[in-house]
TrEMBL record:
Belongs to the sulfotransferase 1 family. InterPro entries: P-loop_NTPase, Sulfotransferase_dom. Keywords: Transferase. It comes from the Eukaryota. It is an enzyme of class 2 (transferase). Its EC number is 2.8.2.-. Pfam families: Sulfotransfer_1. This is Sulfotransferase. One of its GO terms (molecular function) is sulfotransferase activity. Transmembrane segments: none annotated. Residues 66-325 form the Sulfotransferase domain. The keyword Transferase applies. SUPFAM superfamilies: P-loop containing nucleoside triphosphate hydrolases.
Length: 329
C-alpha cells in the first residue's frame, strides 16, 4: 500500500486536476501550514494546496447519488473510529464482524471508506467511484457544510451526512500531534510546530479545514434544519454510551439492527471489532501511514498538553462562538 502521507508530496503529479485549479490557488490568501509549509483560505476555510486541488475537483466533478452516506468531520475528531463503525454496520450481512477474515483486520479504516478530497490520487476518480458498492456508497470528507458539492446539498438529494466532532481542546492537541508526524517525516523535514504556536493558529481559525467552530456550526445548524439528512454526533457521547449511539447510527444509515441481531450480540461484536484497543493491536494499523491516525482514543487528554492559559483561551472562544447555538461541549 502506498504511504498515505505521500499525497502531501504529490502536488502537480495528479492527472485530473482541473485546468483552473492552479490559477484559483495562486489567488488565495495564504497562511502558515500545519503539515505543509502553507495553507490557503478557500471559501472561508483553510486547506493544504494538494488537498485543495481535490476540493476544487470534487466541487466541479463529483456527483452524489441518493443512496450515498457521507462521513463529515473536522480532522482528528473521531473520523477513523466512525469509518470503522460505518463500514462494519453497512457491510455486516457481507462480512461477519466476528470472522477472522473481516476486512478491518487487514485493512485500515481509511482504505475501507475513501475520502472525497483525495480521490484525485486515483488515475480515474469517476471510474473508482463507480466501482464502489452503491447500497450505500460510503465516502468521508473534511469539507465544511457550505463547501460540499451541490449534488450533496441539493434539496432533492437523498444522500445523508453523518457528522462527528469533539471538544475543541482535544481536537487541537490531536491535530497538533498528527501534524508533527507529517512535518518531520514527510514534508521536507519541517521543524516541529510548537504547541503554543499551534494553539495560536487554531484559535485564529488557521488550521486545516478550520476555523474549527465555523466548521462545527455549519453541520450543527444543518442537523437542526434537516435532521433526516444530517446526523450530528459528539465523540464524547459516543465514548460514554457507545452501544446507544451505534444503534442510532445504524438507524440513520438505514441499517437498523433487528431484535434477533441484538439478542445475538451483533452490536457488541461490532463495537469490539471497531474499538481503539482492537484496531491499534492490528499489524495493518501499526504501519507508517496508518499508525499516525491512532493516538490515545481518550477524552480530556488535552489537559496533559495545554497550559491553563491556553485552556482558558479555547474555552472563552468556544463559549463566544457557540453562545446562541444551543450546542455545548
Amino acid at each position: 500500500m502506498t504511504d498515505r502521507f505521500s499525497l502531501l508530496k504529490a502536488q502537480g503529479q495528479k492527472k485530473n486536476v482541473p485546468e483552473n485549479c492552479r490559477e484559483i490557488i495562486s489567488s488565495l490568501p495564504k497562511g502558515q501550514g500545519w503539515a505543509a509549509e502553507h495553507i490557503y483560505l478557500y471559501q472561508g476555510f483553510w486547506f493544504d494546496p494538494v488537498i485543495l486541488e481535490g476540493v476544487i475537483w470534487a466541487q466541479q466533478s463529483f456527483r452524489a447519488i441518493d443512496t450515498d452516506i457521507f462521513l463529515a468531520s473536522s480532522p482528528k475528531c473521531g473520523t477513523t473510529w466512525l469509518k470503522a463503525l460505518m463500514f462494519t454496520i453497512a457491510n455486516r450481512k457481507r462480512y461477519d464482524s466476528s470472522s477472522q477474515s473481516h476486512p478491518l483486520l487487514t485493512t485500515s479504516p481509511h482504505d475501507c471508506i475513501p475520502t472525497l478530497e483525495i480521490l484525485l490520487d486515483h488515475d480515474d476518480p469517476i471510474a473508482y467511484l463507480e466501482s464502489l458498492p452503491s447500497s450505500p456508497r460510503l465516502i468521508s470528507t473534511h469539507l465544511s457544510y457550505t463547501s460540499l458539492p451541490n449534488s450533496i446539498l441539493n434539496a432533492d438529494s437523498g444522500s445523508r451526512i453523518v457528522y462527528i466532532t469533539r471538544n475543541p481542546k482535544d481536537a487541537l492537541v490531536s491535530l497538533w500531534v498528527f501534524s508533527k508526524a507529517i512535518r518531520s517525516e514527510n514534508w521536507n523535514h519541517l521543524p516541529p510546530l510548537p504547541i503554543q504556536e499551534a494553539c495560536d493558529l487554531f484559535c485564529e481559525g488557521v488550521s486545516f479545514a478550520g476555523p474549527f467552530w465555523d466548521h462545527v456550526l455549519g453541520y450543527w445548524k444543518a442537523s437542526l434544519e434537516t435532521p433526516n439528512k444530517v446526523l450530528f454526533l459528539k465523540y464524547e457521547d459516543m465514548k460514554m454510551d457507545t452501544q446507544c449511539w451505534v444503534k442510532r447510527l445504524a438507524d440513520f444509515m438505514g441499517h437498523s439492527f433487528s431484535l434477533e441481531e441484538e439478542r445475538q450480540g451483533v452490536v457488541q461484536e461490532i463495537i469490539k471489532l471497531c474499538s481503539f484497543q482492537n484496531l491499534t493491536s492490528l499489524e495493518v494499523n501499526k504501519r507508517a501511514g496508518n499508525k499516525e491516525f491512532f493516538r490515545r482514543g481518550e477524552v480530556g487528554d488535552s489537559k496533559n498538553h495545554l497550559t491553563p492559559q491556553m485552556i482558558k483561551r479555547l474555552e472563552e472562544i468556544t463559549e463566544q462562538k457557540l453562545a446562541t447555538s444551543g450546542l455545548k461541549f
